Amino acid sequence: MSIKDRTAIVGVGATPYYNRGQSLPQTPLQMACTAIRAALDDAGLSVKDLDGFAIFASACDPAQVAATLGVPEVRFAASLTSGGGGSAGSIGLASAAIVAGMAEVVVTLMTLQQATRRLGGSAVGGQSLYGVGGRAGPYGAGGVAPEAAFSASSGLISPGHSFSQLASRHMHLYGTKREHFAHIAITQRNNAMRRPSALKRSPLTMEDYFNARMISDPLCLFDYTLESDGAVAAVVTSAERARDLRQPPVYVMASAHGGLGRWGPAIFSYFQQPDDYFASSGHRPVAKRLYEMAGVGPADVDVALLYDHFSPMVLMQLEDYGFCPIGEGGPFVAEGNIAWPDGKIPVNTHGGHLSEAYIIGMTHVREAVEQLRGVAVNQVAGAEIALVTGGPASLPVSGTLLRR
Amino acid sequence: MAIKGVFPAALDDPYANEATQPFWDAALRGVLTVSRCRTCGNCLLPPAPVCFQCQGEAFEWVELPGTGTIYSFTVVRHPLRPDLADVVPYVSGVIELDGTQGAGCRMIANIIECDPDSVRIGDKVRVVFDRVSDTYAVPRFTPL
Ligand SMILES: [Zn+2]
Q1: Cβ B33 vs Cβ B19: under 8 Å
Q2: Bridging pattern class, strands A228-238 and A250-258
Q3: If you measure from the C-alpha of residue A318 to the centroid of ligand 1, how many angstroms do you get, rounded to a whole number?
């Protein structure tokens, strides 16, 4: 039994996107409720229909949200483990619940407010705990575990420092250059400039890129995600029920999450992943399962919404999802292949985390839905199949293929 | 006292348990050790309860020469905390240790006494231990 084509995303909803801290005085719970109600309304459903939560990265406490909204009965409440790697995969989790008959209308969401705590490890009025917790990660952890001393004093104290290791190694192995990362940042900015919801709408040139301050070599300011507040929700239901709702269904062709065991928490702790996939996004096994489940290949994908906390990780995902051979991501992006509207595979047509907003992957789900409904701001003409990914991060990373 | 290029120790104690204490005892003596599987010879850092290669559960601590190779690195130029303003730029990276199989036994560490603009992957380094308390010596690496 597979979930293939048996569920659909029927509604998406969001708050406005805000620069870090600017969503106050709203609370994260309030923003979650706003996004969920908007997504249900988009679908032509109401809170009375909602009966499941499939989340990731500890987005919210479904108990609190359900009580606040007055959900009549919760029949499914589960989360993918770890962090942002689960964003796309949580659509698969929702689908699994629906196909298994455990729930009928399941919401996936992220609500994020970085007023008092920044995910990137920068201290806001105190010492950052990144790298000190035993399970070090962008979401922090409590206490000092016995393993912590093996990483805490290394100087790698933010996700950017960690992802720089993968980027440096990729450059070393394949001759990838900063210009290649620049192409990704500039392409996505060009997309964001046309999109009213985007937080960054001023032009970005190659000169601007190379004049920007370096944060952690080889990454400069424009290789880093924005830091944002806001909430985005997506509602999933069965394919049968989807046909009677307000919007054209966006079918879930396939969803997969996980990764090779020895990828593990690699990036966020000790970098022990084997040589042959150190300089990768960790997505290769997920991509393989995803394409197999959907019965399509990379050439069939019309638009790719790739999780982009750091620009080099877009490049490595292009390789790992088979849009170009391993090691050739640099030249591939430099040749304009990811540009909207004429590239071979337009990427992050909404501007992504780099230029639209960072709501931990859920803006990518929203954009995929808009593309497949044919109403995207930067519409890929005739888009039929969209790829959405979550992570690179600690295992699980995830991918979902959607079709109209 | 901030020293340019030297990331200050984040802890004053290794918060060790029985499994990790031998590493820190050796560190205080200036010796780099790793936990090696008695069955297959796979080296593990940090130590783990099970060998991921052969599922063995018996390990021994072995001394290494303390040299290695830079596998990857970053130059941190933006201070994430005010106290790092006088420390940046500093170099931190992933080190493959001589005498081990590599993956599974790499260390992440601050690489000191180097020129941030000329550090390269593949450069040879050796460990130096910075004693920050009676119980904790921080391993850093310096070019050979
Ligand atoms: Zn073994």
Answers
A1: no
A2: unpaired
A3: 35
pLDDT in tens, A335-377: 999 999 999 999 999 999 999 999 999 999 999 999 999 999 9
Q: For A246-361, where are the alpha helices, taking DSSP H only?
A: 284-294, 311-320, 329-334, 352-355
Q: Residue A143's pLDDT is what?
A: 65
Domain layout of chain A by residue ranges: 7-136+156-403
Q: How far is B46 from chain A (nearest CA, A)?
A: 6
The structure tokens listed for A347 are 């990427």
According to CATH, the topology of domain A7-136+156-403 is Peroxisomal Thiolase; Chain A, domain 1 (3.40.47)
CB B13 within 8 A of CB B136: yes
Does residue A48 register a pLDDT over 80? Answer: yes
- Smallest CA-to-CA distance from A394 within A276, A287, A225, A261 is with A261
Query: pLDDT tens-digit profile of A133-180?
Result: 444 444 444 568 888 899 999 999 999 999 999 999 999 999 999 999
CA distance A68 to A29: 9
The reply to whether B85 touches chain A by the CB within 8 Å rule is: no
- Of the candidates A28, A34, A71, which has an alpha carbon nearest to the alpha carbon of residue A53? A71
| For residue A29, pLDDT beyond 60 | yes
B129 touches chain A (CB under 8 A): no
Chain B contact set for A395 (CB, 8 A): none
With cut-offs at 50, 70 and 90, classify the pLDDT of residue A266: confident
> Is pLDDT at B109 greater than 80 in this prediction?
yes
Residue A358: active-site member: yes
Instruction: From chain B, pick out residues whose CB is under 8 angstroms from the CB of A213.
Output: 77-78
Q: Under a CB-based contact definition with an 8 Å cutoff, are residues A216 and B80 in contact?
A: no
Q: Is the predicted ipTM greater than 0.90, yes or no? A: yes
End-to-end distance of chain B based on CA atoms, in angstroms?
26
- The whole-number average pLDDT for the span A24-45 is 98
Query: Contact at 8 Å (CB) between A59 and A40?
Result: no
Sketch out chain B's domains with CATH numbers.
21-143 (2.40.50.840)
Instruction: State how far the Cα of A340 lies from the Cα of A352, in Å rounded to an integer.
Output: 13
Note whether A270 contacts B: Cβ–Cβ < 8 A.
yes
Residue labelled with tokens 């959900």: A71
Whether chain A has a CB inside 8 Å of the CB on B35: the answer is no
Taking the C-alpha atoms of residue B4 and residue A74, their distance in angstroms, rounded to an integer, is 55
* Residue that the structure tokens 């944002």 belong to: A228
Q: Is the pLDDT of residue A268 over 80?
A: no
Known catalytic residue at A17: no
Please write the tens of the pLDDT for every residue from A325-334. 999 999 999 9
